[in-house]
Amino acid sequence: MSSKDSCRSELRIAVRQLTDRCLYSASKWAAEQLVGIEQDPAKFTPTNTRFQRGSSSIRRKYRTHEIVTTPIAGVSYVATPVMEEDELVDGDFYLLAKSYFDCREYKRAAHVLRDQTGRKSVFLRCYALYLAGEKRKEEEMIELEGPLGKSDAVNGELVPLERELSTLRKNGTIDPFGLYLYGLVLKQKGSENLARTVLLESVNSYPWNWNAWTELRSLCTTVDALNSLNLNSHWMKDFFLASAYQELRMHNDCLSKYEYLLGTFGYSNYIQAQIAKAQYSLREFDQVEAIFEELLRNDPYRVEDMDMYSNVLYAKECFSALSYLAHRAFTIDKYRPESCCIIGNYYSLKGQHEKSVMYFRRALKLNKNYLSAWTLMGHEFVEMKNTPAAVDAYRRAVDIDPCDYRAWYGLGQAYEMMGMHFYALHYFKKSVFLQPSDSRLWIAMAQCYETEQLHMLEDAIKCYKRAANCNDREAIALHQLAKLHSELGRTEEAAFYYKKDLERMESEEREGPSMVEALLYLARYYKLQNKFEEAEVYCTRLLDYTGPERETAKSLLKGMRSNQSSFPSMDVEDFPPMS
Fold first, then answer.
1. DSSP, res 439
2. Residues near 125 by Cβ (< 8 Å), separated by ≥ 6?
3. Among residues 50, 48, 10, 15, which one has the least CA distance to residue 32?
4. Which residue, among 134, 125, 164, has the nearest Cα to 22 in the 3D structure?
5. Is the sign of the CA dihedral 262, 264, 270, 274 positive or negative?
6. What number of other Cβ atoms are within 10 A of residue 226's Cβ?
7. Inter-residue contact 404 to 398 (CB < 8 Å)
8. Which PROSITE patterns does the protein's record reference (predicted)?
9. Contact indicator for 426, 396 with CB cutoff of 8 Å
10. Cα distances (angstroms) measured from residue 252 to each of 35, 167, 404
11. pTM for this one?
12. What is the pLDDT of residues 47-70, one digit of tens each?
């Protein structure tokens, strides 16, 4: 059997098993990867080519090298035996409990299975109790604090579940799904080390449960924690590592791993979306936009991840495209958090910040842990000059994810607006530690160092240098480096950076005050260095302007003519202003 056929066979069984245990999100993920496996061209039929159209263009465009191997080629593949199902002794009770579970009657489902001892029944009973506790916790939070408030409400089922699942694990009568649930309970109770161990046992014994991998990834907050995991060599491990690399901001490693997986899962929409996320973190907005456009052509009713697409359109100020996306999301499912964020971005781009906040609040009512909505709402409050509300929104974001550099950056901006520059610097340092490749963060920190309250110009210079090395798209760093060196009396360094800034402006065909400033400084610098030919070049360019810089250039040319008798004879009046 070929590797692709093996993956396909495993996933088909996994989809049935995960669905049977009511792990629907994991089942959906597995099914998406199943249809994402490249089909044998000889087996194509009009029905099974439905998902294949269009995707190959993305693969060709965004792969850095051609992948001809499959995820399980070249490694020691450890075959994981398919779980044996329980005998049908509990079948009728299980079917009834599953029906109650699907109707969200969790306590009722657990009650039906109270006397059943089969592993599948035990898992569904415990899982139903866990979700009943989560449902009651959400209700208490709304009753006590409102939908966006903080609350100390806890899942009341955690303690008895931990006791029962711990006993089952010690007795060796727990299955991989029970281990997953046990890990989930331990994580919520704060026992992260034991939770990591238990979840590791779960994924090694049953690697197709993506929910277990996701929980394990959330416990690997450092590279050392990730490297300490003793994972079996299964192709699901590559999906996990790619996802973990993304969370740890190892974007190039993440992209390499996903490109590797494309060798088998060449038409997986999930992988394409994850590649777009990594490219988004690297600020490759054109590539991200192309991927999302292709995803929408292949899956026109997709809402998942489309809020990130709206962020790209917002950053590129593509008003019509964002308007179309917002209308599309509203039509498909207006009560999805992603849809609310897309509409919020649309109103923000229109400058209607109050309406934008309303939709971000709606997203948070649907999912109070929706990180993107907290951060974007903070940005809107900054625009509205409501700094206390902005600080609160950003703090809620970092409470959910302490590694969200955008929220730390937002906190820095808010405190800077309040004139509290030492606090702002602290938060900018946090953001730049988490995302050292983003030039905007280095520039924000440099500008903070430049303020009168701090006036730490040497540190500002270091930050601007880092920004210049991080592809400063806004073209701020070089100009500020030139100005700071000039202010500190370092004429040679200032001339170096003015020249580099001038070259960049010329290559980008940009005009403006920064170009005039650079030309004036370089003309004066080269005149003082008695390099009259270079000085003449910059003065000549200044004569094309109509402001006071033209008169300054004339004065410099006359001064150089008087200092050097061999200076070419010319009438400065012969240089007409630029029309």
1. H
2. 97, 109, 110, 113, 114, 116
3. 15
4. 125
5. negative
6. 20
7. yes
8. TPR (PS50005)
9. no
10. 26, 43, 19
11. 0.82
12. 444 444 444 444 434 443 333 333
Q: What is the pLDDT of residues 550-579, one digit of tens each?
A: 888 888 888 777 766 544 444 434 334 433
Do 231 and 200 form a contact (C-beta atoms < 8 A)? yes
User: 435 with 441: CB under 8 angstroms?
Assistant: yes
Instruction: Please name which of 133, 126, 153, 103 lies closest in space to residue 368, comparing C-alpha atoms.
Output: 153
| Dihedral-angle region of residue 512 (phi above 0 means left; psi in -120 to 50 means alpha; beta otherwise) | left
Burial state string for 456-468 with b = 16 or more CB within 10 A and e = fewer than 16: beebbbebbbbbb
CA distance linking residue 64 with residue 86, whole number of Å: 46
The C-alpha atoms of residue 435 and residue 224 are separated, in whole angstroms, by 18
Sign of the CA dihedral 194, 435, 344, 389?
A: positive
For residue 281, give the nearest of 374, 376, 405, 428 by alpha carbon: 405
Which residue type sits at 347?
Answer: Y
Residue type, 121: S
Classify burial at 8, counting beta carbons within 10 Å of its beta carbon; exposed 0-12, middle 13-18, buried 19 or more.
Answer: middle
Of 331, 336, 383, 388, which is closest to residue 357 (Cα–Cα)?
383
Report the distance separating Cα 114 and Cα 122, nearest Å: 8
What's the helix, strand, coil split of the chain in %, to 5? 70, 0, 30
Residues 27/18, Cβ–Cβ less than 8 Å: yes
In terms of residues, how long is the chain?
Answer: 579
